[in-house]
């Protein structure tokens, strides 16, 4: 549905998006994840045909964005970063205005606008001026604008920025519901967000794609080994000595000593080795009692940081990045 091939965008001599390629299939919900200044908005602006790449090709539903911009753009509903600026229009006027822009036929307009108002739960505020509604409602108005014209693809730039937790939950639910009959690409610098909404994640940093995978696989990929969290009673203080003689343990680290004198450690092994059974046997022989043993969870957050750090190491010579707050 979306094909991006070797796309580069420069602002002057600064490369904001650097030779990126990816594909998005029909019906997928994909997250474009990266820190501020990574190139997310620039990428989305190119996908929507809002700005042109210096190099590369973007194909939307079979139409080349440069050669057939009208047809390509018709398939796209875009929700830009930030809130809509049409403060002096009512919610309904704004959606009608968008319908005119998208050239929705007159006959269908009224019905279509009403349907979108219902889909985005804007009925209560449809006659209020946009300036007078809350941030959460504004975001939904913006989303409504993207839905006008029944596009196959929704491009949502940081859809939850600036919202309170309740509003975030509402917007997420809304995005998921639209995922049933749209292909969606949304950007975010929040990890938990993409892992909750998206089935595929594209991680971008300093204009380059550093990984494309499912949230689960990304976590798996960057795990250096299995990390176990263990709580023991070790009256004779032998655990570190004993552990030295267990093959497969790469590291044992004391995390803390509890008030009941039990101690918490993390134990790292190779990816392939499951030490749980052996630990139970060997420790109990040495009078080390295991109170608790569990696998430590590695989060998408870890994955993200690790991927970005690795790429940073590789690209130390890549200087001259000016960071922008967005
Ligand atoms: P993100 O959306 O991931 O925060 P952007 O795509 O907005 O990132 O920006 C990527 C980089 O390009 C940033 O370093 C930003 O400062 C720069 N940039 C964005 N827009 C412009 C512009 N119009 N002119 C010059 N530099 C820009
Ligand atoms: Mg942005």
List keywords for this structure.
14 strands, elongated, alpha/beta, single chain, binds magnesium ion, six-stranded mixed sheet, four-stranded antiparallel sheet, binds adenosine-5'-diphosphate, 326 residues, 34% helix
End-to-end distance: 28 Å
Write down the overall mean pLDDT.
88
What bound compounds does this protein have?
adenosine-5'-diphosphate, magnesium ion
Topology pattern, helix = H, strand = E:
EEEHEEHEHHHEHEHEEHEHEEHEH
Strand content: 25-35%
Strand order of the largest sheet: 6-7-8-3-9-10
Give your account of this protein's structure.
The structure is a single chain. α3 crosses α4. The chain has 326 residues and is an alpha/beta fold. The two termini are 28 Å apart. A 6-stranded mixed beta sheet has the order 6-7-8-3-9-10, sandwiched between helices. It has a 4-stranded antiparallel beta sheet with strand order 2-1-4-5. The radius of gyration is 25 Å and the shape is elongated. Mean pLDDT is 88; it is low at 317-326. The chain contains 11 helices and 14 strands. Helices cover 34% and strands 28% of the residues. It has helices at 40-47, 69-74, 91-101, 106-119, 135-147, 165-178, 191-197, 215-222, 239-244, 276-285, 300-314, and strands spanning 2-11, 14-24, 29-33, 55-60, 63-64, 76-79, 153-156, 183-188, 200-205, 208-213, 226-233, 249-257, 263-269, 289-295. It binds adenosine-5'-diphosphate and magnesium ion (MG).
């Amino acid at each position: 549905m979306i094909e991006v091939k070797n796309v580069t965008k420069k602002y002057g001599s600064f490369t904001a998006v650097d030779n990126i390629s990816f594909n998005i299939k029909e019906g997928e919900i994909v997250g474009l994840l990266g820190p501020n200044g990574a190139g997310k908005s620039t990428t989305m602006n190119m996908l929507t045909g809002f700005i042109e790449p210096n190099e590369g090709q973007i194909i939307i539903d079979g139409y080349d964005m440069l050669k057939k911009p009208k047809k390509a753009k018709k398939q796209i509903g875009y929700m830009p970063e930030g809130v809509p600026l049409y403060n002096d229009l009512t919610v309904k006027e704004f959606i009608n205005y968008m319908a005119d822009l998208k050239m929705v036929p007159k006959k269908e307009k009224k019905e279509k606008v009403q349907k979108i108002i219902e889909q985005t739960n804007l009925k209560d505020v449809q006659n209020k001026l946009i300036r007078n509604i809350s941030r959460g409602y504004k975001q939904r108005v913006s989303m409504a604008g993207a839905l006008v014209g029944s596009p196959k693809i929704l491009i949502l730039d940081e859809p939850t920025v600036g919202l309170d937790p309740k509003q975030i939950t509402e917007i997420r639910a809304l995005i998921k519901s639209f995922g049933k009959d749209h292909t969606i690409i949304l950007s975010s610098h929040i990890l938990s967000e993409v892992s909750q909404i998206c089935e595929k994640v594209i991680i971008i940093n300093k204009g380059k794609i550093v990984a494309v995978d499912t949230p689960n696989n990304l976590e798996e990929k960057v795990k250096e080994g299995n990390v176990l969290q263990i709580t023991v009673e070790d009256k004779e203080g032998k655990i570190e000595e004993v552990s030295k003689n267990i093959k497969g343990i790469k590291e044992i680290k004391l995390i803390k000593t509890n008030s009941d004198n039990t101690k918490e450690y993390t134990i790292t092994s190779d990816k392939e080795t499951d030490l749980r059974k052996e630990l139970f046997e060997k420790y109990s022989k040495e009078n080390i009692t295991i109170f608790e043993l569990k696998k430590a969870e590695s989060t998408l957050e870890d994955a993200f940081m690790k991927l970005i750090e690795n790429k940073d190491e590789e690209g130390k010579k890549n200087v001259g990045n000016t960071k922008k707050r967005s």
